[in-house]
Amino acid sequence: MTATAKMRSVRIRETGRDRVFNIVNIIFMIVVLFITLYPLWLILISSVSDPDAVLQAKVLLWPVDFSLTGYEAVFKYKELIGSYLNSIFYTVVGSALSVVVTLAAAYALSRRFAGKKLVNLMITFTMFFSGGLIPIFLNVRDLGLLDTRTIMILMNLVSVWNLMVARTYIQTTIPNELYEAAVMDGANHFTYFFRCVLPLSGTIVAVLSVYYGVARWNDYFTGLVMLRNRSLFPLQLVLRDILTSLTSAGSSDTFFAAYADNLGGMQEALRQADVAKYCCIVVSTIPAVLLYVFMQKYFVKGVMIGSLKG
Amino acid sequence: MSQTVSSRRPTASLGVRAGRVFRRDWQLWVLLLPTLAFFIVFSYFPMYGVQIAFRNYKAAFGITGSPWVGLKNFEKFFSSYYCGRMFANTFLLNLFGLLFGFPIPILLAIMLNQLNSKRFRGFTQTAIYVPHFISTVVLAGMIYLFFSPTNGIINSLIRLAGGKPIYFIMEPGWFRPLYIGSDIWQNAGWNTILYIATLTGIDPQLYEAATIDGATRWDKIKHIDIPHLIPISVMMLILNCGSLLSSNTDKALLLQTSGNMAVSDILGVYVYNVGIAASKPQPSYAAAIGLCLNVINFGIIVLVNTVSRRLSDISLF
Q1: B243 touches chain A (CB under 8 A)
Q2: d(Cα A276, Cα A251) in Å, to the nearest integer?
Q3: Which helix (H) or strand (E) holds A47?
Q4: Please, are residues A177 and A215 in contact by the beta-carbon 8 Å criterion?
Q5: Structural domains of chain A, ranges and CATH numbers in brackets
Q6: Overall average pLDDT of the B189-201 stretch
Q7: By the CB < 8 Å criterion, does B142 face chain A?
Q8: Residues of A whose CB is below 8 A from B49
Q9: Which of A233, A298, B119, B178 is deepest in the core (most CB within 10 A)?
Q10: DSSP-derived secondary structure letter, A214
Q11: Chain A contact for B271 (CB, 8 A cutoff)
């Protein structure tokens, strides 16, 4: 009661200059929102508009001549569908493995043991120095992992940053008394980790899953360097061919030319190319954006835990 | 206390003590094992393999069997025509990126913090984080589509205004604006998180006292918000300076075209092009360039870290 009264009195005392400030601020935010969201909106409405309207840049605020031909075309690109399934596989299996491995190491690093300093040094050093792209590539080739699904899972398995975040989380949220009590009851590190730490780590499991998941889903560079066999390509790598390969005409039509027969001839394929590209963007981006919208609080939490120094 | 313990076990030999430590800790090492194996195989093996920078690598002879050539690869790089251009391109791209990209999240955080309506603020925050989750490939694709000379929306607007269409993605002069502008669009919102957290951590009594003293919102920003943001901003600025010569290879590679080569050729992209993508790859030469770059970047980070620790007591390691 008193608090609301106070709030009200504060608001009443807002001066004219403050009111001007507020209006300017709201206008500023609307501009920011427009700049952020309009490109996304444009993609969405272009993807469900008539191909001709898109080519003539008539689609600006609302879908023009609503049509789903773009999406129909997208589902005819077998390579795209295949790469979509590949990406789901790499993302789900890879992230699950990453989370398990990272959490186990994070728990170990949250305890005191002989040799911990050396391990910490060894791990952090990789953040600041690496052999470089070429030695990494040759190493994978010498291991015989080039052009395999295995390398798509193993590359970037553990991120040092995520490991630090997880360790800091365990150190700050799980009290040491719990460990002492568990040891009194005869627990060893395994039983304590699986029976006490894991059940208390729901938040950090979510944070790690979304971080690893989004990074893997959006990664194309690993595939670009490590894969030659197109049937293993992740989605982003196929998208790269669709979206960013230029021809002399200034549009990326090579990919669509390959599907010309499916789409009723070259001319038709080119007519649909732009709409199909917008549809590809929508179809490929929705998983990551949905994950973000549903798991927002975990993303922000990850940044916050990371900014604490462990 | 510690004296009693040590007097109780005065004669434990090294072997016995090691055994005791092992019995107590071996499970921790098991939990660490996959992570350690990962870093050894995928980070430290390549560091060993970096010696190919000093050799003339031939696949048939392997890493250690290829002939030793000393610093030849490095000399070739530093005397090449492209060397200076690539260092300049890499540095300028990062410098302009920092110059334009750094202040915007701070400004956004301050303005967001001043919004009265909690709902509007929440919505805006959620919305401006979204572009962060779009992949680099899709971002590049959006640039290709929106800035296309034939059907792109930007050129349609230019044509509507009576101007001549610009082939943005082929113009060297437009590479940096496109690269940095899209970077800001994608990450400025996300980068506000730390600053917003700092602002929400400020004691509300400060604002109340200021209000009672008749401070306007502008006064509060000037005398409360900005002073609170300075330490973390300085820290972020210093840390960002550590990456002035690093390359965001995957993004630059996507935006590189035959037209904008003179500006888009940055070190990381060149290493990929020469060492892997070329029809006749030169792994040793590319590895030498990569090694140079990594050593320089490592030096910069150590320097920046020392400066940061001296100035603000904040350091990475």
Answers
A1: no
A2: 13
A3: helix A16-47
A4: no
A5: 2-68 (no CATH), 73-236+282-307 (1.10.3720.10)
A6: 89
A7: yes
A8: 131, 135, 138-139
A9: A233
A10: H
A11: yes
Looking at the complex, does the CB of residue B299 fall below 8 Å from at least one CB of chain A? no
- Whether the per-residue pLDDT at A244 is higher than 60: the answer is yes
Residue ranges of chain B that CATH labels 1.10.3720.10: 74-312
- Please provide residue B165's backbone torsions phi and psi, each rounded to the nearest 5 degrees: -60, 145
One-letter amino acid for residue A3 of the chain: A
The owner of tokens 């990494």 is: A136
Domain B74-312: CATH class, spelled out: mainly alpha
Inter-chain CB proximity A131 and B47 less than 8 Å: yes
Question: A10, A102, A103, A134: which to substitute to probe chain B, counting the most B Cβ within 10 Å?
Answer: A134
Phi-psi region of B164 (alpha: psi -120 to 50; beta: other; left: phi over 0): beta
Q: Angle at CA B173, nearest 5°, toward B140 and A245?
A: 30
A32: CB partners within 8 A, 6+ apart: B108, B124, B128
pLDDT value of residue B11: 60
Q: Is the ipTM of this complex over 0.90?
A: no
Per CB-CB distance under 8 Å, the chain B contacts of A135 are: 46-47, 49-50, 52, 287, 290
What tokens were used for B198?
């700092």
Instruction: For residues A224 and A295, give the distance between their C-alpha atoms in angstroms, rounded to a whole number.
Output: 29
| Closest residue in chain A to residue B185, using alpha carbons only | A36
How many Cα atoms within 13 Å fall on the side-chain side of residue A197? 28
In tens, the pLDDT along B76-124 reads 999 988 899 999 999 999 999 999 999 999 999 999 998 888 899 989 9
Round to whole Å and give the CA distance between A217 and A235: 8
Q: Write the DSSP assignment of B215-245 as a string of letters.
A: --HHHHIIIIIHHHHHHHHHHHHHHHHTTTT
A positions 200-219 inside 8 Å of B (CB): 214, 217-219
Model pTM score: 0.86
